[in-house]
Amino acid sequence: MSQPAIRTVLGDVPPAELGVCDAHNHLFLASPRLAGRELDDPEAAVAEARAFARLGGAAVVQWTPFGMGRRAGRLAEVSRAAGVHVVAATGLHQAGHYAPALLERVGGRLADLFVAELTRGLHTDDEPDGPTGPARAGLIKVAGAPHGLDAHARRVMTAAAEAHHRTGAPVAVHLEGGTAALDAVDLLCGTLGVPRDRVVLGHVGRSPDPRVPRQAADTGAYLAFDGPARAHHATDARLLGTLAALVGAGHTGQILLGTDTTRPVARASGGEGPGMPHLLSVLRPSLERELGPEVAEAAFVANPARAFAVPW
What we know:
Blueprint: E1 6-8, E2 11-13, E3 21-25, H1 42-54, E4 59-62, H2 75-82, E5 85-91, H3 100-106, H4 110-119, E6 137-143, H5 151-167, E7 171-174, H6 181-191, E8 199-202, H7 212-218, E9 222-226, H8 234-237, H9 239-248, E10 255-258, H10 277-291, H11 293-307
Parallel strand pairs: 3-4, 4-5, 5-6, 6-7, 7-8, 8-9, 9-10
Antiparallel strand pairs: 1-2
């Protein structure tokens, strides 16, 4: 069996070489739901990633899936220019992010599409029948619906599970408002057989129910706490308390941290927000001070190195 590796857009790297990781972010992103707020500027992406790298950042996991303006042909350029590893995603988001015609074209062969992007290369123009580039995906992105799993979510998760079984790739789940975490785990792991430590639950800290992170952690999945620079979110104010409770319950090894930048204005470079640098200039020192350097090292280095490693 091959040794585990993390599949980046510049090739596979040993987990020990991933380094300090932003485990959930977007360098490029476009959707009809976000009209006028696209992340589509390669220079801005490089500037933001460089600002992260200057503080010790070494890797960013881009959760932008197929068909959402991920700029597959530019990701390698950004990685080289910024000096950071970039892990790209295949998969699909909620149905509302796509033209119905595109969903109809790919609907019957989602698993094959995901496997092709994981093993051969990303479709450079987000066309399922178009050419693929040398950059390959390293994870499969799926999404729940608000407070549950609709038919689209179940169809995409079923295809993602098949693609996981054919490749070993991790499955990253967008939880709308932090809801439906247990539904997603029940389907992916209980019904479809994806190992629980191959699932990453995103936005789990955004649920208004403070019991949800602990319930999600008890499933054995990884938990991605993302968007910590959004100071107007109540979940951000209680982030350290939530992490402290998880650490106290023995879940240190499941915690991941990311920025989840979805608008240009949220970036540190050219925007108004603290962006990616916030993870290392503010959050990591706070985590070290409140919970200890070992917890911070686990969340930023050791855990992502395990979560995204696959014996390709």
